[in-house]
Design a protein that fits this description.
Blueprint lengths: L1 E3 L3 E3 L16 H5 L2 E3 L2 E5 L5 E4 L1 H14 L7 H14 L11 E10 L11 E11 L10 E6 L16 H16 L4 E5 L7 E4 L3 E6 L2 E5 L9 H12 L3 E5 L3 H10 L4 E6 L3 E9 L4 E3 L7 H14 L10 E3 L3
Parallel strand pairs: 8-9, 8-15, 12-13
Antiparallel strand pairs: 1-2, 1-7, 3-6, 4-5, 4-6, 5-17, 6-7, 9-10, 11-12, 11-14, 14-15, 15-16
Helix pairs in contact: 2-3
This protein binds 4'-deoxy-4'-aminopyridoxal-5'-phosphate (PMP).
4'-deoxy-4'-aminopyridoxal-5'-phosphate binds next to α5.
Enzyme class: transferase
GO molecular function: branched-chain-amino-acid transaminase activity
Family: Belongs to the class-IV pyridoxal-phosphate-dependent aminotransferase family.
Length: 323
């Protein structure tokens, strides 16, 4: 779907996957005016296909558009575009286990010019790719690197938007994490370099027995839809759930005195991933016994059961797509 100044959205088309031709002076290549979303379509027990909270993805896409001075796509147009693609590609929606069809809606500037200003033309696209179970040999805890040198996002910046620049800014820290033998980077706040924000592509949860805490939306972390859903699911299951501030010292101390029993990360791709160990330039520790915890696995099963249609959907999160 195209957007042109003075004309709005027009020319919705369903076309075979193919390369795009881009002008060398396309503004996106230079000024990164680009946003995206990630959501999944799941095969339901009756053979139909449904996606998980696509309205929430559509609304976050609108929020990202506002932050990047881009036009907002109506929620129903966003969902209709996903639905048109899923109808076409229905055969590609897997039926086994945790597999799904990953949908990637995105929008970028298409105007040609070298001046730094919002583009007058945009293109919105959706592509899809079948996604197998994230863990092939059973759930495996990840090791994380606390990034003290680099920050992903600062107050007033674009951290709460899903825009390419945030991910470009994170690549060097992710490479450092790998260099230190860790799987993922954990970001701290930009001002004090003390408060836990999020992981490279997932939000974090800290489990203290029956009490579960996730870092509050500081303005510089992505408001994850899995994070938001777990606030409700955990409460439904009887846990005490809160959003709050958690510092590196809190994490270390809770681990030492045994009050912190589990840490996990959550996001669309991996659903829920236990965090097994932590490393930084100054310290390193194993989270509890380093194994997937009972609360982590219980929440993971509860969320997957809703997404795959095996459990009731008390919050009305599943939306039929391309039935
Ligand atoms: N933080 C970042 C930086 C991400 O890229 C993602 C993945 N979209 C998340 C958190 C988790 O968000 P969600 O649960 O909506 O997938």
């Amino acid at each position: 779907i195209k957007w042109t100044e003075g004309r709005g959205w027009h020319d919705a088309q369903l076309v075979p996957y193919a390369p795009l031709s881009i002008d060398p002076a396309n503004m996106t290549l230079h000024y990164a005016q680009t946003i995206f979303e990630g959501l999944k379509a799941y095969r339901q027990p009756d053979g139909s296909v449904a996606s998980f909270r696509p309205e929430a993805n559509a609304e976050r896409f609108q929020a990202s558009a506002r932050r990047l001075a881009m036009p907002e796509l109506p929620v129903e147009t966003f969902i209709a575009a996903c639905e048109a693609l899923v109808r076409q590609d229905k055969a590609w929606v897997p039926s086994e286990g945790e597999a799904s069809l990953y949908l990637r809606p995105f929008m970028f500037a298409t105007e040609v010019g070298l001046g730094v200003r919002p583009s007058n033309e945009y293109l919105f696209l959706v592509i899809a790719s079948p996604a197998g179970a994230y863990f092939s040999g059973g759930v495996k805890p990840v090791s994380v690197w606390l990034s003290e040198e680099y920050v992903r996002a600062a107050p007033g910046g674009t951290g709460a938007a899903k825009t390419g620049g945030n991910y470009a800014a994170s690549l060097v820290a992710q490479a450092q994490a790998i260099g230190h033998g860790c799987d993922q980077v954990v970001w701290l706040d930009a001002i004090e370099r003390r408060w836990i924000e999020e992981m490279g592509g997932m939000n974090l949860y800290f489990v203290y027995g029956d009490r579960i805490v996730t870092p509050e939306l500081s303005g510089s972390l992505l408001p994850g839809i899995t994070r938001d859903s777990l606030l409700s699911i955990a409460a439904d299951l009887g846990y005490e759930v809160a959003e709050g501030r958690i510092s590196v010292e809190d994490w270390k101390r809770g681990n030492e005195d045994g009050t912190l029993t589990e840490v996990f990360a959550c996001g669309t791709a991996a659903v829920i991933t236990p965090v097994g160990s932590v490393k930084s330039t100054r310290a390193g520790w194993t989270v509890a016994d380093g194994q997937p915890g009972a609360v982590t696995m219980r929440l993971r099963a509860a969320l997957l059961d809703i997404q795959s249609g095996r459990a009731a959907d008390p919050h009305g999160w599943m939306r039929p797509l391309g039935a």
